[in-house]
Design brief:
300 residues, 8-stranded antiparallel sheet
């Protein structure tokens, strides 16, 4: 008990960003002796299964980060054709209904939808009374994040913040963990709208949100349309609190990659009221793989 309390206390005093960015830099090193040693130690420590990776030989990855964000063999994660699917490999930390603008972080701990989405009321409105699911990606998991359903990208914001660990122990003890940590919020429209995007201060009722939450030692958050979003480039507009750079219309199919973490973290998916019903057999703490069914899309 004392050790666990000490681990939490240390996170408040450690230089979170400096430590995380330094480790992120080390993860990009291509010196063969260093990166091969790091990869082998990681595989041994976390019992990583390389059998489903396109490149199974750990020594052929040019850096630790290339190994960590490795692609999988075609068909390694079948995409369920009928259901809403898990966007990543991981553990279902929490799921349910967004009640009175709040989501469950852990037993006895809640956090605010409006704060999660950066304080923009127009962006949070469509998700009031809707559904959410939080997936924790452990270090040994596949770390690419995919689409739960087909959607057209409407908006993206980067929200700076802390870098607390996001494992279950920290979620149990650090208040407002997911609204304190830095994160990338992507809003998709589940319909292909021919007339183009909505105004910047509006979100469609058929919206779907995917929130990628940063954490301690996470080297970065990337999206397929904007590249590296976190840590922000020094000369980039991403240094501002809100960042929107979605370019031309981006439509991603169900199961298509939308981003990845450089070292583990958490993904939160959001749907509007009555849009999705979670499968009744799902349980908190359940391990799941990307592409497996998690819910049913309700036609309206």
């Amino acid at each position: 008990m004392l050790l666990n309390k000490l681990k939490i206390a240390m996170q408040y005093v450690l230089p979170q960003h400096m430590l995380s960015r330094a480790l992120g830099f080390a993860a990009e090193l291509e010196a063969r002796a260093v990166k091969n040693r790091l990869i082998k130690l990681f595989i041994h420590r976390f019992r990583v299964d390389m059998s489903d990776a396109i490149e199974e030989d750990p020594e052929k990855y040019p850096s630790f980060n290339a190994f960590f964000t490795r692609a999988l063999k075609p068909g390694a994660r079948p995409i369920d054709p009928e259901h809403v699917v898990a966007p990543a490999d991981g553990v279902i930390s929490q799921f349910g209904t967004i009640s009175e603008g709040t989501l469950i972080q852990a037993k006895g701990r809640m956090y605010n939808l409006l704060e999660l989405l950066g304080g923009n009321r127009e962006w949070s409105k469509p998700f009031e009374g809707g559904s959410y699911m939080t997936l924790y990606l452990a270090p040994f998991n596949y770390h690419r994040v995919h689409m739960p359903l087909r959607g057209m990208l409407e908006k993206m914001i980067y929200i700076p913040g802390c870098l607390f660990s996001v494992n279950q122990h920290t979620a149990n003890h650090v208040p407002n963990l997911f609204t304190r940590n830095e994160r990338v919020v992507s809003i998709f429209n589940r319909r292909d709208k021919k007339e183009g995007r909505l105004p910047a201060d509006e979100v469609d009722q058929d919206a779907m949100g995917v929130v990628l939450v940063g954490a301690m030692v996470v080297g970065g958050i990337h999206t397929v349309w904007a590249g590296q979003v976190s840590p922000p480039h020094r000369r980039s507009k991403v240094m501002t609190r809100y960042y929107q750079n979605v370019g031309n219309a981006t439509v991603l199919d169900k199961g298509q990659q939308m981003g990845h973490f450089s070292v583990g973290s958490t993904a939160i998916i959001l749907f509007g009221k009555g849009a999705v019903e979670w499968l009744p057999e799902l349980k908190e703490g359940q391990s799941i793989k990307m592409g497996e069914p998690i819910g049913v899309q309700v036609e309206r």
